[in-house]
Amino acid sequence: MRNLINIDNFSRDYINSSNLRKLDRGIRETIRGIQISALAVGCVLLKMQEDGSYLDLNFTSFTAYLDDIIDGTKFKRSTIYNWIKIGRIYISHKDDLKAIGYDFKEGTTKLLYLEDALSNGDKNEVLQNFKDMPLREFMAYAKENKEKKEPEDFPFWELTGSIFMNEGKRAVILNTELEEYSYNMLMGLNTAGFKALENSQSILVVYLKNMRELNRFKKIARIARAEMREEMRKERLEKKKKRGGRKK
Predict the structure, then answer these.
(1) Nearest to 161 by CA among 110, 235, 90, 92
(2) Where are the alpha helices (DSSP H) in the chain?
(3) Domain locations along the chain
(4) Burial of 148 per CB tally in 10 Å (0-12, 13-18, 19+)
(5) Which pLDDT band holds residue 137 (cuts at 50, 70, 90)?
(6) Distance (Å, rounded) from C-alpha 84 to C-alpha 69?
(7) What is the pLDDT of residue 68?
């Protein structure tokens, strides 16, 4: 996480100033500093959630750790999770943000709308607009990009960079900061999972002690697989009927 976020130190000398312009500048810079501090907190919390380091602080789960933070700081849970979301988006796109020279002069809120804008937009255009557009204009642009296609026009699943999309909606976002082995393993598992779902199949992880258990499991699995395929086939047919009804 070292050097993940580079920002200038913000002066607090304006507090006792009588110069109105200095007061205004100080207020704006301080708010920007608060937002970037929240981004840093979100990045660290995301890292702790993924590597399980909260366990070393004697917490049984990440939720328990957040509960303790919330009790101690009185921040709303939604606020903390918003910081984590901003941190995740920043980490996923930090190389692109660095390439366009984004300097956080407008704070970090705009990050919340970056992936919506990227969902159906040209990457270079989106990044340039992210840099150039004021927050409200970019929010409208991101919403327009997100709504470009009707849900039925999307493929069942597709992979965009490190983001798995399911019928046009983000389903799984892999952290590009993971070690290569972990990243490739998760990429393979998710790819296999989406392919299975697309073909009305299922993936089940089972631990077996010996070949005898394996042979028994194969017989049971064949029966269960046939039943699940039939059930999923019926569900998909029902969805198509509902969509057809809406179009009429």
Answers:
(1) 92
(2) 20-51, 62-73, 77-99, 114-119, 123-132, 135-146, 180-198, 211-247
(3) 1-107, 149-199, 202-248
(4) exposed
(5) very high
(6) 13
(7) 92
